[in-house]
Amino acid sequence: MVEGILGKKLGMTQVFTEAGKAEAVTAVEAGPCTVLQIKTSEKEGYNAVQYGFGEAKNINSPRKGQMKELGNFKYLRELRVEDTADINVGDTVDVSLFEEGDLVDITGISKSKGFAGVVKRHGFAGGPKTHGQSDRHRAPGSIGASSSPGRVWKGTRMAGHMGGDKVTVRGLKVVKADPERNLLLVKGAIPGNKNGLLMIRKSVKGKK
């Protein structure tokens, strides 16, 4: 059974509860997605479905062949599943997969913020602001020892490109699911820019 769908972030808004409380929600255009390929553990070594989502303007011949004349899709992504018995190529998955009150895990690419120093990127405190220091206010400080190991460890937090990472936010509540408009309202913020691609799955927290 498929427990996920592809979507596009539309932006944030707010809704009012029955008690009159305003809640921040993110609007997502979720689906419809078309199943283009089914991968099984017997053939590929794992169970998964390949989705097609969004409309593309220009598609080359190899990609058209991959889509099996089911449509011209902008995005092709895989979703792992436990069982592929009740899934067929050409099936359509839409927002009706979710209901109000469900918990979902949403994966997206976080906003890229360009090159950033260690204070902004990692929250470093910086150097002393007085006692003769004039150019070390936002510097990283020592990045390693001298003779042993005689090099900088891999993964040392330093200045560099900030954002643009694959981020998953878990346990978000579905406030509203509207299959007629392919619309999903999710409580809180989700990663990515407006119109960014999202993978929305039923939450592992909800399964527990």
Descriptive account of the structure:
The chain has 208 residues and is mainly beta. It has two domains: 4-113 and 166-207, Translation factors (Elongation Factor Tu (Ef-tu), domain 3), CATH 2.40.30.10; 122-162, no CATH class. It has helices spanning 61-67, 118-122, 204-207, and strands at 4-16, 22-30, 33-39, 48-55, 73-80, 92-93, 103-109, 114-116, 160-162, 166-178, 183-187, 197-202. The strands form three sheets. It has a six-stranded antiparallel β-barrel. A four-stranded antiparallel sheet has the order 5-4-3-6, with no helix packed on it. A hairpin with a 5-residue loop joins β1 and β2. It is extended and about 70 Å long. The relative contact order is 0.26.
Describe the strand arrangement of the main beta sheet, using strand numbers. 1-2-11-10-7-12
Q: Tell me the radius of gyration.
A: 22 Å
The CATH architecture of the largest domain is: Beta Barrel
The structural class is mainly beta
Strand content: 35-45%
Count of domain modules: 2
Oligomer state equals single chain
N-to-C SSE series?
Answer: EEEEHEEEEHEEEEH
Q: Low-confidence parts lasting 5 or more residues at pLDDT below 50?
A: none
| Mass-distribution shape | extended
Could you state the CATH homologous superfamily of the largest domain?
Answer: Translation factors
- According to CATH, what is the topology of the largest domain? Elongation Factor Tu (Ef-tu), domain 3
The major sheet is characterized as:
6 strands, antiparallel, barrel
Distance between the termini: 18 Å
CATH class of the largest domain: Mainly Beta
